[in-house]
Amino acid sequence: MLERRNQRLKLRVLLVHPSIGTDSAGGRACRTLAAEFADLNIETVTANAHEDARATIVSDAAIYAMMIDWSMPDDDGKERDNAAATSLIKTIRARNENVPIFLFIERDKARTLSVELVQDINELVWLLEDSATFVCGRVHAAMRKYTAALFGPLTTALSSFNQVHEYSWHTPGHTGGTAFLKHPAGRAFYDFYGEHVFRTDLSISVGELGSLLDHTGPIGDSEKYISRIFGSHRSYTVTNGSSTSNRIIFMACVGRDQVVMCDRNCHKSIEHGLTMTGGIPHYLVPSRNRYGLMGPIYPARFVEATVRKAVASNPLSKGLKDKQPVFVVVTNSTYDGLCYNTGRVLEEVGGWVDRVHFDEAWYGYGRFNPLYAGRMAMRGDASTHDPKGPTVFTTHSTHKLLAAFSQASYIHVRDGRSPVPHARFNESFMMHGSTSPFYPIMASNEIAATMMDGVGGIALTRESIDEAISFRQVVGRLHRDFAKKKTWFFRTWNAEKVKDPATGKRVAFEDASQELLATDPNCWVLHPGDGWHGFDDLEDGYCMLDPIKVSVLTPGVEDSGELGKSGFPATLLTAYLDACGIEVEKTSDFAVLFLFSIGITKAKWSTLITAMLDFKRDYDADKPLARVLPGLVASHPERYEGLGLRGLGDQMFAELKKGGQTAHLQKAFSDLPEVRISPADAYQELIRGRVERVALANLANRTVATSVVPYPPGIPMIMPGESAGAAKGPYIGYLKSLQSWDKAFPGFGHDTHGVEVEDGEYYVQCLLPR
Ligand SMILES: *Cc1c(COP(=O)(O)O)cnc(C)c1O
User: Fold this and answer.
1) Measuring from atom 1 of ligand 1, which residue has the nearest CA?
2) Pick the CATH number of 661-767 from 3.40.50.1100, 2.40.128.50, 3.90.100.10, 3.10.20.30
3) How far away, in angstroms, is 34 Cα from ligand 1 center?
4) 0.90 cut: is pTM over it?
5) CB burial class (10 A; 0-12, 13-18, 19+) of residue 88?
6) Model confidence over 271-303: pLDDT tens digits?
């Protein structure tokens, strides 16, 4: 059956005039305009007061033109030098450089317009003199021009292709979705997603759109457009996540038996890079603080002489003729939101290693807010990149903290010494790419860039920074109020005091102005000597905490790093929040991580504050678990029946103290295990089946076949080909403490990659003894 579908973009105009809805000349003129717009199928949204207009401008991104009265009064009803209209125009332009603005003005008032303001608006309208048809026609034309330029090249091409309706004889076989319509389930699926996603799921046979593997046509133009916005020499769209982006870069840069400097705090895909290339790793060990949060790699670890010495004594590089590291990979920012002064890192390694890769999977927005200046791979203008400096790569998981579909990712490159020319790089790109990439993912990668372009990027990043700061300050004030009553509350991990450069005085974080916290990086830098961050001997300015990655701390850890008299681990808070329908990003021993992405809203974080307060009330009252965590008690009645929230917290805290879990973790992640064979060689053993499953009790001195990665901290503790160490050593010690915890607290078990759990026992894949 034929149905009416494919609604075009609905155009909407905002009309701001104090006389709207009144029986006056201005009111009648506005009504006439609205009627005329309706005839053009344009919806009119109205506001007759300044504040109302401002709220609409800030909240409704579907307005494609604004019409504002120059004589708008202020909120108190008085008109002062056109302040209300001026402020509305500034608000619009701070978020959007291009949306058309029309100003209603009386002829004799035109001289009150400043040159600056005239540049911000598109046209003047003499409301009582021009005809409605003429005015609306002008607005309509401006809207069409604006919407035509709204998208980047690929999205523009896809949306116009979408209007063509050709009959396709190529893959995908669902041909624009029609295959789904032949089955009730298919039909329901089609209706669920909506037709456009099917109609724009195309194949490389559609020549007009170009090809991802050849980087031609609108797809190639899209990569150039993304490159301009992200400040690279070249950018690539990847449709299988930064996991793939990292492997592409690795395989383009590293050959068999070449030495690679790898952040030990690395994503799994870096290990895959080592496995696939046969590169020989030299690990850069990051710092760790008392809350179990991983910090940066200190500059001393990058120093040439230190690295060369370590590489020379690395058993894996014995016999290698060439021990020159060819590649460095550093995770920036860390999962917990610590970002490097990348210039400082390049100063240490850029002179003697040719290719540097910053894995910025969680940090794609960094470039767009001045707060992060100098702390990302693509710093400043691409043209300023030193051709004699290192070639710099970065990867962004567009889907993580920008707005894109899952799997959308970018690779950005700046060529320096020893570049990998595009044609060579593309060999690796094609090896990992599909010949049938999903076009909506590519389009979403482009939209994420569009949204960050120009003032939009500043406004959107500032918004999430502001929300994160407000949240932190509310938690800080609650903590302070409760402390006055001699009782505990959560804290957020950030400076306790910040310096206001205007007065030179240090003020409590929760009393500092939003403007200061949102614009002065010094409020977030980990200064040496400051106690809050818990990292020793840091160089000033080297590392900064990203405000939008918010760690909420649970009580229990003393400033010395020892566990105090009382407290409870973060996993209890996570379980409680989960029962309230709040999902967290990550739970460490005493910290829960929340991401304030650009999708954040005030309502979302106020709900979180309420839940934290509820937790405190229920914890202090030792509320029965059957009431607060009913799911847990239902699954493990024998363990948890009759226990209260506080009772469980006490038991957990005691177990952490007894098991020495935190101390084991500290040791396990500050030293590297003994290396036996490379990750690539270990993998060869694995595929040949020369491995066996080994219980913890027998693990001493065995060589592991797959990496062992406990979450948290989500960092490889033992890499493939490394030894599990002595029975009483830190690695087995840590795994034992996790195993004992899992047995003691069913429902709170750890998820450790590389560990199989059977009847509560931990097993690890090891190489057969030689
Ligand atoms: C998530 C992540 C990746 C992988 O990104 P995907 O887009 O999920 O494939 C790579 N590196 C780091 C540091 C990550 O956190």
Assistant:
1) 361
2) 3.90.100.10
3) 49
4) yes
5) buried
6) 999 999 999 999 999 988 877 788 999 999 999
